[in-house]
Amino acid sequence: MYQPKRQPTKLLVMASITAAIFVCMAVGVMKHLGYVGVIDQAGFRVALQLRSASLSAVMIPLTNFGNPAVVTFISVVLAAIFAWRRQWTLFGFVAVNMMVINAVNFIVKNIVERPRPFLSDSQVHNLVAAGGWSFPSGHSAGAVLLYGTIFVCATALVNKRWAQNTLRTISVALMILIPLSRIYVQVHYPTDVIAGFCLGATGILLSLYFFDTENV
Hints:
Elements: H1 9-31, H2 34-50, H3 53-63, H4 68-84, H5 88-112, H6 117-120, H7 138-152, H8 154-157, H9 161-184, H10 190-210
Helix pairs in contact: 1-10, 3-9, 4-5, 4-7, 5-7, 5-10, 7-9, 7-10, 9-10
């Protein structure tokens, strides 16, 4: 399904760094270490200072682009496109990314069992509904993996250079803004979002190392 060609070692180094940050967040949350509270309080303080009706009108719809149904639908469409074209390396790249991240996210959530911030603190007012455990942020992990995958596969999806650049710009924006929106709407602690972002980043960096996505 995939080419065994190995990519530059720097991908492994970067994956190790993001994985280490993820572990630090997870240990800090489970052990109730001080730096977790500092990060969370600072993040929520900034989010509340920025909150306004106009920004909420942008952030609430934006956060929906990381919803599991949306991420799953786009992932299936991407996988179907690459399967139809018989681009099996890219098909595997998409499939492995999304299946593995969903499994890891589910396992970690049920190990850590961190309640949502609006359930733990009456002063936190969520702007959208959210259920399940809080750590790590599945929206953040899914956004980084899905839109990161689109970034990587842009040249295989569209031919024109301007279209590739546009697709990559939109992908990067969503990779950053969707995680931030989860803090803004206060359904995740900032440390949940950092962990989710790093989990997704670790996944895509490892996939880039093992899959030869450049020669398809």
